[in-house]
Amino acid sequence: MKVLAFNGSPKAAGNTYHALTMVTAELEKEGIETEIIHVGNQVVRSCVACNQCRTHRNEQCVQTGDEVNEWIQRMKHADGILLGSPVHYAAMGATMKAFLDRAFYVSGANGGMLRHKVGAAVVAVRRSGGLPAFTQLNNFLCYAEMLMPTSNYWNVIHGTGPGEATQDLEGVQIMRILGKNMAYLMKLVEHGKGKIIPPGPETKAYMPFIH
After folding, report:
1. Does 92 score more than 90 pLDDT?
2. Coil, strand or helix at 170
3. Is the dihedral of CA 109, 111, 113, 119 positive or negative?
4. Distances 187 to 1, 22, 115, 196 between C-alpha atoms, Å
5. Each residue of 10-39: pLDDT tens digit?
């Protein structure tokens, strides 16, 4: 099994990265392979609402010139997805948002490529705004019908300078427990394959509020 972790911070080794490594360390202890992909320092265009991914259904965003389509395919073949972001004005980083908008829309437009994979989100923040950013990340996981492990508190860790998050003892525990619970859930899913029939997907019902 493998987990792809996406670092939405512009800093390669900032507090978001440290939060992700705390989670992935626990996954690796359980024999789960992990890889961290640095998104936050890339140039990623936002979704332009062209709907071409839904028209063509080729598992690709029509926009090229960045790594989003490659990341989408890697997410498709991973067993778990871990999203990490810093907090910018009580929200996730803009590059991370652009990436997730495109990746998750392509997934949904192509039959739910991430459906029933295990997914979790973590946030690194200086002081406040962590919960709104955490909720933003979780919205993507919920939309994709992913299975979400929890910890003993919200997955937010505090620190200002790079590495300071390691001094947030409560935050460190949150990340550690999240990693353990994520590994546990992934193993349940893996051992249930071929034994428990998962619920099938349903055609999306749309409520037109404007006629």
Report:
1. yes
2. helix
3. positive
4. 9, 19, 16, 13
5. 999 999 999 999 999 999 999 999 999 999
Residue at 203 is within a domain: no
Number of domains making up the chain: 1
β-bridge mates for residue 86, sequence order: 124
Handedness of CA 196, 78, 4, 76 (dihedral sign): negative
Residues 6+ apart with CB under 8 A from 43: 66, 95
Residue at 209 is within a domain: no
pLDDT value of position 206: 86
**39 in a structural domain:** yes
Backbone torsion region of residue 51, taken as left when φ is above 0, otherwise alpha when ψ lies between -120 and 50, otherwise beta: left
211 within a domain of the structure (yes/no): no
**pLDDT the model gives residue 184:** 98
The boundaries of the domain holding residue 101 are 2-192
CATH number at residue 146: 3.40.50.360
What the block records as the tokens of 23 is 């989670």
First to last CA, the chain: 47
User: Over 90: is that where the pLDDT of 199 sits?
Assistant: yes
Helix (H, G, I), strand (E, B) or coil at 95: helix
| Tokens matching residue 91 | 């929200």
**Tokens at 94, concatenated:** 């803009």
Question: Can you tell me the distance from the alpha carbon of 97 to that of 153, in angstroms, rounded to the nearest whole number?
Answer: 24
C-alpha torsion 129→131→136→137, nearest 10: 110
Cβ atoms of residues 109 and 62 within 8 Å: no
Alpha-carbon span 57 to 60, nearest angstrom: 7
